[in-house]
Amino acid sequence: MIPQLLLSLDYELFFGPRTGTVEHCLIRPTQKVAEIAERHGARLSLFVDVLYLQRLTEEAHRFPRLQNDLDAIRKQLVSLKGTGHDIQLHLHPHWLDSSFDGEQWNQVTTRYKLHDFSAAAMATMVGSAKELLTRLIGNTVFAFRAGGWCMQPFAQIAPALLAHSIWLDSTVFAGGISDDKDRWFDFSSAPVKDSWRFSEDPNHEDPQGQFVEVPISAMRVTPLLFWRMVVSRKLLPQTDHQPFGDGSPMVWGNSYFLKRLTSSTISVASMDGFKAGLLTKAFSDEQATAPGKQLFHAMGHPKALTPYSLMQLNKFLAGLKAFTGVTFQDFKHLQPKSEAHEVSHQ
Ligand SMILES: [Zn+2]
Predict the structure, then answer these.
(1) Range of the domain at 277
(2) Residue pLDDT, tens place only, 271-290
(3) Around ion ligand 1, which residues have CB less than 5 A away?
(4) What is the distance between the alpha carbons of residues 52 and 30, in angstroms, rounded to a whole number?
(5) How far is ligand 1, taken at its centre, from the CA of residue 2, in Å?
């Protein structure tokens, strides 16, 4: 069985006090990772932070700089789509509460996840985001990844997605847990499979479900990696471990780091920073523990890529004997049919 390889990237700025620039957080690192992918026959699936693009379009007439940002992003996305990469939907709703003061974005993250908005607001959000992305790059959008992995309880956001024909989710990674009360998720009981149908709970397979999950591969990360990360950031700011992105991340609660510095945690298989050094192991561990699994799905963020992580990605891809590079467009045949109509004809 030849493995399938899916590489997805959350195409977004930082959400902390410094968002960073489009050039350094998006354009340059995405260009670099696309070159590596293309060299090895892999393709990228970009989850584009569309509500940020929506804010750019709203403010562009007042600030020419933002029009330039939007133009650069559109140019890159159109070019990537034209060379076989895929563009899908990523939603960080706090952009709707954020403002541009002529110099920088001032972000308000009190409403960080979809669930912080009303059902009507969610539906409007998904609809306008899909419409904008379609207007910018054409009609390709049917897949979704929740900002910050916050998709639960899924029943609350399902109607908004369904109303706009977003039927594929790619947020789950088996075993992943966050107990941060504002950015909570729990994928501890998710199946380890290439894909499955679900209805109200992404962890629970439902053959009649109207949604399809194509999960991200998971990997175990030991505290050693986080200690190396902390030490190198403090001591060696100008090394191969310096991220391309020129912003700063949002501050998580202390418990987030404390947990990672003291015990093993489950992470997504990641192209970002230090974690990219574990890609080869993540791939072989998954093959060993789930022998029937064909799809390996690693994700990352252009802003969090580093010279080291790109070198590791290149090494990982070069080391795979044979694989088929896929995007979400290759999963279109999984789309659930509208069974309600079929049943009524019987
Ligand atoms: Zn994101």
Answers:
(1) 4-345
(2) 999 999 999 999 999 999 99
(3) 10, 12, 147
(4) 17
(5) 30
